[in-house]
Design goal:
Blueprint lengths: L6 H16 L15 E4 L6 E2 L12 E3 L4 E3 L9 E5 L5 E5 L13 E6 L15 E2 L3 E3 L4 E7 L12 E12 L4 E9 L16
Antiparallel strand pairs: 1-12, 2-12, 3-4, 3-5, 5-6, 6-9, 7-8, 7-10, 10-11, 11-12
């Protein structure tokens, strides 16, 4: 007696594998957020220095949002953006691609200006981002950020990137420093920007 498998049975593993590879969910499959959001500031030892003209040796000039870390913008390009100060005293936000070489494989960063007090912006937009573009940002301005992240989100079924927001809190043109407030949702594909706690969406 010959046992024959149905075409649906044979193809099922490949369909599931394809869904996982593309970040889609199979019908009836849901994924919940599990990591808590966090809000942080670049102050104290995390105070950011303008990348130009000559920041102090070893001083942080960039932010790696997923880790909530102020880091030095170096050739590892393991950060989302670096900061500078323009001629009129505004903060300049450079996505990592603006500092990388043309052959470097860096994450894509999208940003857009948001209206309203910082505390009111609780959900990142789905679209409307300007990708890999430099922003000149006055004090008090809020940016929503979409970060593609193949390292932390490369195997996620909910999305290939994560979302965050930041506000320029202050700029010191004498010391060439920038203080930011930022909130990060590390749950890949989720857009909640509540300040703390595990988000629901």
């Amino acid at each position: 007696m010959t046992t024959r498998l149905s075409a649906a049975f044979i193809l099922a593993p490949f369909i599931v594998g394809g869904l996982l590879a593309t970040g889609a969910c199979a019908p009836g499959v849901t994924a919940d957020s599990s990591l808590p959001n966090f809000t942080d500031t670049t102050q104290g030892s995390n105070l950011l220095y303008a990348i130009n003209p000559n920041p102090p040796a070893g001083a942080p000039t960039a932010v790696a949002l997923f880790d909530g870390a102020s880091v030095r913008a170096d050739q590892a390009f393991a950060y989302d953006f670096a900061v500078d100060i323009d001629s009129v005293g505004q903060a300049v936000i450079y996505p990592v691609s603006k500092l990388a070489t043309s052959i470097s494989n860096v994450r894509r960063i999208g940003m857009q200006i948001m209206a309203g007090p910082y505390s009111v912006v609780e959900t990142a937009p789905r679209n409307g981002y300007a990708y890999d573009s430099t922003f000149h940002v006055p004090v008090g301005t809020i940016l929503a950020i979409e970060s593609s992240d193949p390292i932390n989100c490369g195997t996620s079924i909910t999305g290939s990137g994560f979302y965050s927001k930041l506000q320029v809190d202050s700029v010191n043109t004498i010391q060439r420093t920038v203080r930011l407030i930022f909130t990060v949702d590390r749950n890949c594909g989720f857009r909640s920007l509540i300040p703390t706690g595990v988000p629901g969406s």
